[in-house]
Amino acid sequence: MKYFQVDPQVGNDEYEILKDCFDKRWLTEGPKTALLLSKLQEITSAEFVFPVPNGTLALYVALLALNPEPGDEIIIPSFTFYASASAAVFAGFKPVFCDVDPITFTIDPVSIEKKISKKTKAVMPVNIYGRAVTLNRVIDLCRRKGLKIIEDSAQAVGVYINNAHSGTLGDVGTLSFFADKTVTMGEGGAIITNDHELASRIKLLRNQGRENSGTFIHPSLGMNFRITDLQAAVGVAQLQKLPDIRSRKQKLFKLYHDHLSNIRDIILPTLNTIDNDVPFRFYLQSEESNELSKYLADRGVQTRSFFYPMHLQPVFTKMYPEQDSLPVSEYLFRTGLCLPLHTSLSDTDVSDICNHVKSYFS
Ligand SMILES: *Cc1c(COP(=O)(O)O)cnc(C)c1O
User: Fold this and answer.
1) In angstroms, rounded to a whole number, what is the distance separating the alpha carbons of residues 43 and 316?
2) How far apart are CA 206 and CA 225, in angstroms?
3) Strands 336-339, 282-285: pairing kind
4) Virtual torsion, Cα 295, 78, 159, 68, nearest 10 deg
């Protein structure tokens, strides 16, 4: 492959700050974690930020903090990464899948309404591909119905929607710092919230059921969902680069759009929010997405399909056999294709990739 899907931007800055961890011999949550938290607080304006080992556990702990009772349901978009749904199951929820908007790919309020039952306790909007998509109608609906909102903002670090950071629009939100995300710690995640009650539960759940380390009195049930200061250190170095990553990815996204705008047989993403996006992938839709993917692979371009819908996943159809068809999620999986979008791509790389796409369609 000449062009991979991801290429994490790690180098000297990360190396230097890691060296400092070793020099000072501080490996567990400590000075670098404190820096990471204040940086995340500054970026998200969330009152409480909790570091966790990855984005999946961020969802799991945040969902546990909602205190689900047996039979409680959570409405989750079918078009998302598997972890959104598996974390909900592990936390004790029954996942109920709904459809998404065909343009923004985020949870569709009309579809949510059809899925609300007496057992519905929460709704999980998922930000897809780092677009600054408004959730006003979803939030209004959930507030009216008394449903909790947990935002999976794994792909949306640095994305602001009407000046509020993604993940702070509902009750609690989660971020991921996996190697392919906007900024990375290798593995890593965070929970953000402005809700004092949820925050105090998350604090105990995360750290062995106690307020602080170093005491052996445990008032409640908790686990170890802490990180290392090594992860935090890498995160600190990465977050310094967020403004550059953001503007570079916006530029590349627009460049892709320019190059591909004359192809009649594909659907391109809208550009209306690009100045507020931190694009996670470039993507297009085509009825020939599979053939195009193979064609590009033969020419050194690694692609990714869109998510396989949750309501069709073998694991969930086995556990919850009664699933309605969700046409938008199915359509997106059939047609969607992601092209490489990362900061080591040059303008020429993007035009090279686009030339292959153009030649496929001509
Ligand atoms: C990456 C991702 C996750 C999981 O995060 P990890 O850090 O990989 O565990 C959850 N939801 C979405 C939408 C993601 O893209």
Assistant:
1) 36
2) 5
3) antiparallel
4) -150
What does 141-197 look like in DSSP terms, one character per residue? HHHHHT-EEEEE-TT-TT-EETTEETTSSSSEEEEE--TTSSS--SS-EEEEE--HH
Q: Which amino acid is at 247?
A: S
3-state secondary structure of 224: strand
**Span 94-139, pLDDT tens digits:** 999 999 999 999 999 999 999 999 999 999 999 999 999 999 999 9
Q: Around Cβ 261, how many Cβ atoms within 10 Å?
A: 10
Tokens of 63: 């969902």
Chain-wide mean pLDDT for the chain? 97
Q: Find the 166 Cα to ligand 1 centroid distance in Å.
A: 14
The helix-helix angle for 347-361 and 289-298 (nearest 10°) equals 130
pLDDT of residue 213: 83
Q: Is 83 in the pocket of ligand 1 (CB under 6 A)?
A: yes
Determine if ligand 1 sits within 6 Å of the CB of residue 229. no
CA-closest residue to ligand 1 atom 2: 154
